[in-house]
Amino acid sequence: MTSDTSASVRRTVDPRGPRFGAAITTVVLAVTLVFIDTTAGTVLIAWQTLVFALGSLVGLQAQPYGWVFRRVVRPRLSPPSEMEDAAPPRFAQTVGLIFLAVALVASLAGVTIVATIAIAMALVAAFLNAAFNLCLGCEMYLIGARLRRS
Hints:
With 150 residues, the chain is an all-alpha fold.
């Protein structure tokens, strides 16, 4: 397969979609921290873990916040000036999944401090993406890609 062919089959996303998802994630994780030591907090951790799992393992098209963006928000916006490769945001979903899986296990085990730290780290990453368009998971992906080419 030539590089032209492989590039043409790559999935792309409207870059505003992951940022929209990060904004919702920021709110969900902030509320989760408020209710961290309750059943509601554990349910929110489980929900966000599922959201990240769908985005990571199935693809961004299966991520619920992405679905809302595509069906409700994007039709009301002008077309994006450019699309971006879906691989970095999907990797970012994997990083989020790891943090929230740790938080879920810790919460279920009653180790609230570990759950709080894992959620707070994911919250910071989601906030940076939502507020400043700085996707830490995407940057990690790009650094890894550069290292693999070296």
